[in-house]
Amino acid sequence: MTSTTTEPAGPAPVHSRRLRRIRAFTGAGLAVAATLALVGVLMEPTPESKATTVTLESVAVTRGDLTEQVRASGTLAYAGMRSIGTPLPGVLTALPDLASVIGAGRELFRVDDQPVVLMHGALPVWRGFASGMEAGTDVLQLEQNLAALGYFTGQPDREFSWQTADAIKAWQMSIGLEVTGTIPVGRIVFAGGDVRVSAINASVGDPSGPALLAVSALGKEVVAALDPSLQSVAVAGAEVTIALPNGSKSTGTISKVGLPKEMEDKSLKIQATVTLNDPSAANDFDNVTVTVGLTQVRSRNVLIVPVLALLAQSGGGYAVDVLEEPGKTRSVPVTLGAFASGNVEVTDGELTEGDNVVVGR
User: Fold this and answer.
1) Would you say 70 and 225 are in contact if contact means Cβ atoms under 8 Å apart?
2) Alpha carbon distance 19, 17 (integer Å)
3) pLDDT by residue (tens digit) across 13-43?
């Protein structure tokens, strides 16, 4: 009879226990393990996800005047444009060249082959010069010119004297005029300085008249048409910027401001005359459109922050983030005033001059 001996059961081999543990992770356990493994992979640092320090761009809060640039169109051209002619009867026998410069004592044009001469003076010619005439500023101007030309040897004054008559005779002889010691109306033209011929409005052979030439001063200026609301800004002595046609910029000073007047489009404008601080900046331009910039003060002595620092709040209103230390900010609700040129006035809020507010977040 064959007997079978059964050995008692002992501890399972090590590899069997590991197998049972692995099998135990099937089903829900395996899903949890997979999730944990995925999280571990995602959290593992990679070269592309190295920790970086975020730098916040900030701007200091300032106190001062809140200003804005107001722009207007203007024309850059030679200054002091005016017409010149003569009441002398006759025929034009010579005219100057266009753009020529004519100085004191020089010929403007000729009538019946006799010169009409430019002299310096603010008062225009309104009467002839002769012995026995009443004293006047025009006599003083004439004597000053004759003295500058080397013909009057006395002290210029308002009286027409024998010295005046002698000086006139010497001058007449030098330029080929009949020597009379008197000057009829129209033989000389007074102007504030040397002139530049801007336009010729007649031809040789035409009869003489009151507007034969258009002349200007030698310097250029800008004349801008401004809205009447800018009268408080557009005052004599105010500094302005001038944008030229080639993209460059220059500066100027308002020298004169006119009263409001109606333009062709029925709008009211004030004319402001601007003198260039650097006349050479206009050398390449004449009768061109430019843009004039004036500085207007919206608020004085106020706290100012950039508009880019404002953060809209969910309940309404605005706040700014004040940078307290690198990477750490404090939100400060603010009440706003006027806006101008990318900045805004802060009228209320726990904000002081020198605080750094975050911009561009």
Assistant:
1) no
2) 5
3) 433 333 333 333 334 333 333 332 333 333 3
